[in-house]
Amino acid sequence: MKSWAIGINRTWGCVLSREDSLLMRAFGCPQGFLGKLGGLIMAGTNRKCAAWVIDLLDVQPNDKVLEIGFGPGVGIQLLASPAPAGYIAGVDRSKEMVAQATTRNKKAIESGRVDLRHGSVASLPFADNTFDKALAINSMQVWPDAVAGLREMRRVIRPGGEAALGFTPYSGQPSSGLAETLTAAGFAKARVVERDKNSCALAIKP
After folding, report:
1. pTM, rounded to two decimals
2. Which of 22, 58, 56 is nearest to 137 (CA)?
């Protein structure tokens, strides 16, 4: 998987090459057979990073947590474990990923602990100040407007709540500039940590 996403994000709305178009259908906004295959790949490649980011967020048993761009639902599955009395929600713009994640988290959804929705970071279907924490794994680099998306993320986090942006080496997202982007979106105390070639930007809603 090449580091392709940054170029796509910078040229959003332009005509993509055939290779980038295929990659978008597999990983950026998974669709069809390529989307199913991409979901299987992401379930493996993103798991370690997702577990690390969730650990950094220190999720508590009663926390309300949102994941944006949850993909095949591995992060949602990992979030449900440390928050048995909480509420785990997710939004993804790929119907294929909503289907895969729903299958993976069927029991938690049926119990009411997990709520997965088809939607976009541009307009999150939740009220202001709903969540204690929010995260995105290998997602922000394909948002049409990163700052606007982060502002929408900030809107649904309660004051004092925390946001985390995790990236694997395959994302193509450099760690430089992440703290500044979070600050531009209205977050405070932004910082970046790295481990095993993965990076995570963390910040607080003031």
Report:
1. 0.81
2. 56
